[in-house]
Write a structure and sequence with these properties.
This protein has 334 residues and is of the alpha/beta class. It has two domains: 194 residues, D-Maltodextrin-Binding Protein, domain 2, CATH 3.40.190; 97 residues, D-Maltodextrin-Binding Protein, domain 2, CATH 3.40.190.10. It has 14 helices and ten strands. Strand 6, helix 6 and strand 7 form a beta-alpha-beta unit. The longest helix is centred in the N-terminal third of the chain and has 27 residues. The radius of gyration is 23 Å and the shape is globular. It starts with a helix and ends in an 8-residue tail after the last helix.
Amino acid sequence: MQIFRSVSMCFAATAAALLTATADVYAQTPDRVAVRADVFFYGAHAPIMVGIVDGIYKKHGIDATFATGRGSSTTIQTVANMSDQFGFADAGALVRLTAQGLRAKQIIGMMQTGSYSIISFPESNIVKPKDLEGKTTGFAPGGATDQIFPAFAKMNGIDTASIKSVSVDPQARDSLFLLKKIDFDIALAAAQFPILEERCSCKLNLMRFSDYGLRLMSNGIVASDKLIADNPDLVRRFAAATVEATNVAINNPEHAVDDFMQYAPNAGFSRKVVADQWHQAIQLAHTPRTADKPIGVMDMQDWQETIDVLSQYLNIAKGTVTPDKVFTNAYLPQ
């Protein structure tokens, strides 16, 4: 009986040790996370690449991958249906989709001041909004700038029916523009302006929406309401890692560009373009209301003003979207 008791105790101790070891293995296994960009890789994405290349996400228990997207609207939809856990996407597209019933939020404000713009060749003589009338362009239905353009047009009295257009994806539009098949490009200047000037080896005209009354929140990290509810710890760790990586990238821009070039060596443009893009993104990281706040922290009034403008110009029913439906600071580092 004594031998049986000793063997049983030994077996129990061994089983307990195995269970503990197994639990430790699972505890140390990082969560696999897919992050989706808004469009092609560009300089504003550098913090996510720093987080991956420098092992910052791994330190927070996350194995992150980062892939290109096909427009903010598409990215937000893949996040909402959990095909991707997180996305880098535009605030305007998020407001519009939220009005249609989609449930997701920006959890980190990465570019809180928009750089939506019209880009044109000088010979097109496009220097003010009304000059767009009668011109040609390409519309990318899933692109963030294309969702915002109708608001810009209405605010500035542009007859959109007079604009000749074809349906394209954002990269095809850039190519058509450089081939001078269309008169103007609708673009996120922080991404595309340095690329287009490098590719044409020329100076281009830039008309920012913000210079003509349309000031909106812009790009941030989006997560679905379902992920936030089901796995708040993962959301909190991802936010902490992204903020940490962003601070590294801001404090050492050259290192950020190094990591970008390592992660996306086939992005298709030079180191100088990436550096210019990241420099512009840094300038857009805050609004006046968040200038003294840590990276990523957003302001409710900035969101309310964005919602109000979009409701007025994009026929979103008043009260359909409220700031609490589209953003939260709750998962940022305290």
